[in-house]
Records
---
Amino acid sequence: MTDWRHKLAYMRTPWTVAIACLLVLAGCRNNHAPLVPSLFLPTMAQRGDTIRGWVSSYDRDNDSLYFLVDWGDGAETAWVGPAASADDYRVFHAYSDTGTFGVVAKAKDATRESGWSDTSFVQVGEFGPFVPHRPAGPDAVTVGDSVTFITAAGHPLLRKVSIQFDWGDTLGEWGEFIAANQFYYVRYAFARAGTMLVRARARDALEHISDWSKPKTVVVEAKLEARIPNSD
């Protein structure tokens, strides 16, 4: 009886060890944590606007990844995803306050998390157009002659801008919205003689208005009237 049990145990031992080893290998797979993510955001944003950015990380095990972004303003955040390893995942946020906010992110797979990313800073404010360039145009004109003046205005967020001229003798209408930094051409005929200071200012769609530009000095001369010679 003892010999039978000993033989049975001997026959089962190799199989038992092999199965145990397989179970140990399957249950003890070395799952690696994702790498600290990279975070790409704009450096400036308008208060209330929704900004968009991208976050990505790499996972050695090619696991699907989830991301947690701390936007630095105390807003509640949650894990978002999934994304494939090394793929960019788009994230969105809107700031209700102005200021400079530090943003960080981290990644996780099914079981492990990365550390926090380096801090990216976003400056949030009420950004309007830059002051336009000093208008360019002729130095001297004649009353009633239509001449062209040129200027351009930028915007820190590259928003479209509208430009208005102060002609020195009257205030012009706002122009149509054009791309930031695009040259704006307008023709004008002065109605009276004198030295005019021509200026320009810009606005965006949110009614942020810039200061006036430096003036362009224009000498407007009276139109000479032709005299009819006296026949006497």
Note: The first helix runs from residue 2 to 27.
---
Amino acid sequence: MRRTPDPGGGGKRGARGGPAGAAGAVRLVLASASTARRRLLEEAGYFPEIIPSRARELKGRGMTLVEMVRANARRKALAVARRAPDAVVLAADTAIEVDGRPFGKPRSRAEALAVLLRLAGREHRLATGICVAERGRVRVGATVSRVRLRALPRARLAALLARYDPTAFAGGYSIRRGRDPLVARVTGSRSNVMGLPMEQVAPLLARRLGRRLQ
């Protein structure tokens, strides 16, 4: 199998249980450049090709949070499926809810700071839509978690944002394993907040790829 360049660092390719290119191996493609999503899959035993989707993301006008992430995940999966028609394509889209309205990635560090100041010390909803596309068949789902951020002052939030690029993450933040300096509590799937709800994704891939997780 031809290797596709991996913006996230790359690694082994092919579905769980066999080397890439082996007879009968299923081609699994992740339609995202997210290193966190790739790592979550690898920890579950899946080593996908990386083909980031170029589909335009909907901004959620007139849509609920869940409707938006489901629609975006579907658009991303179908866009990559056209480029990899023989593969099982997994796509995902993560967004948060700010004062009742869906919000994806901030456009700047300043916008990220404004959003985090509004959410500081409060609980908000975060949703990830997923879509698996395979030879014309499409399966779409979504998982919602509740996230409470720490009540941090502006200067502390600005210092945290200076350590990474907030425009790469829904809501302008990511979550670390263990104690996170920004996230105080997660109710529901923690991997969902990292970008891929593995409680939903893993069984779905196991069925599609004909393998059961150990």
Note: The radius of gyration is 17 Å.
